[in-house]
Design brief:
Blueprint: H1 10-28, H2 32-47, H3 50-54, H4 59-76, H5 100-103, H6 106-113, H7 117-128, H8 133-140, H9 144-160, H10 168-183, H11 187-192, E1 194-203, E2 215-216, H12 218-228, E3 235-242, E4 245-252, E5 255-265, E6 268-275, H13 282-285
Parallel strand pairs: 1-6
Antiparallel strand pairs: 1-2, 3-4, 4-5, 5-6
Helix pairs in contact: 1-2, 1-4, 2-4, 7-8, 7-9, 8-9
């Protein structure tokens, strides 16, 4: 596929999630119960088919209505948890997706073959189809922590497969150019920085209404990034080190809302890895000691 019709600016997705949390807290009070209700809401959203999601004219209204329904059910039966993975009403299938071969490029499929069965399963479920961590763990038969380690191992293997290391200074220069193109909404320049066969992955973890499948091709990837990073008040694109390489760190209302990393080969971006999952960004939002000059690479 590769279309971007369901892409939404990141700031709007974050505001939407915060709205749902506010609704759940208003009904259930503070604490993890409200967060669990919102997680269940997004689980139901991802349980819909593509056609069903496309038929919803206002996702925010749909999500709010479902959050309210879930909260009411918890209030009327507080001792009973909502159906979880594998239970009635889960809505997330465990059958292999027949469209996988069409959604993932031949190059990526070849790389996936080199992974262990567990790594491949976790990577596809978590990074490609954005299933919630608990659901992935139940399907694979591992703990969420073990699945997180398997997913990271798979990402490292895929990034290393067949790619010549790009010198740090070149990587930094290209990522800076990508950021500048996004800030200026310069689609032509952004496309010129991408490989013709570029692939973008969006890890929402089922906690935010991110794209559920990878986006393919320089034109589609560029449009998706420009839409996701569309200028909004108090949304800033910084440059900072992530896993030893320059990445784009998006801050919204002074909190890290996304970390976008890039794989670069022959001076073109081949893969975009956008982490939007709030759980995976907690470490970025913890208070830390005053900067000592390490890690940050500054911003333009």
């Amino acid at each position: 596929m590769g279309g971007t019709g369901d892409t939404t600016p990141l700031a709007e997705l974050l505001d939407e999630r915060q709205h749902l949390i506010d609704v759940a807290r208003w009904m259930l009070g503070a604490g993890t119960t409200a967060e669990e209700a919102v997680t269940e809401t997004y689980r139901r959203w991802y349980g819909l088919t593509d056609a069903e999601r496309s038929g919803i004219s206002d996702p925010r209204v749909w999500l709010t209505r479902n959050t309210g329904t879930i909260c009411l059910a918890r209030l009327s039966a507080p001792a009973r948890r909502p159906p979880g993975p594998g239970g009635a009403g889960d809505g997330i299938g465990t059958e292999p997706d027949r469209a996988l071969s069409k959604e993932v490029s031949d190059v990526l499929l070849s790389a996936l073959d080199a992974l262990s069965p567990s790594e491949r399963a976790v990577f596809v479920l978590n990074d490609v189809f954005a299933m919630p961590p608990r659901t992935v763990a139940d399907i694979v038969g591992r703990t969420p922590h073990e699945c997180a380690e398997l997913a990271e191992s798979a990402r490292r293997s895929l990034r290393a497969d067949g790619a010549r290391p790009t010198p740090s200074d070149q990587h930094d220069r290209i990522v800076r150019a990508v950021r500048q193109a996004c800030v200026l909404n310069d689609a032509r320049h952004l496309v010129s920085l991408l490989s013709r066969h570029a692939i973008a992955f969006f890890d929402g973890g089922g906690k935010i209404r991110a794209l559920t499948r990878p986006v393919h091709g320089d034109q589609h990837v560029a449009r998706t990034l420009l839409t996701l990073l569309a200028p909004r008040p108090r949304t800033v694109l910084h440059l900072q080190a992530a896993n030893g390489r320059t990445a784009i760190v998006v801050r919204h209302h002074d909190r890290v809302a996304a970390v976008i990393s890039f794989d670069i080969t022959d001076q073109r971006v081949t893969h975009v890895w956008a982490v939007l999952n709030p759980d995976k960004l907690r470490g970025w939002n913890r208070p830390h000691p005053p900067a000592d000059g390490h890690g940050a690479v500054g911003h333009v």
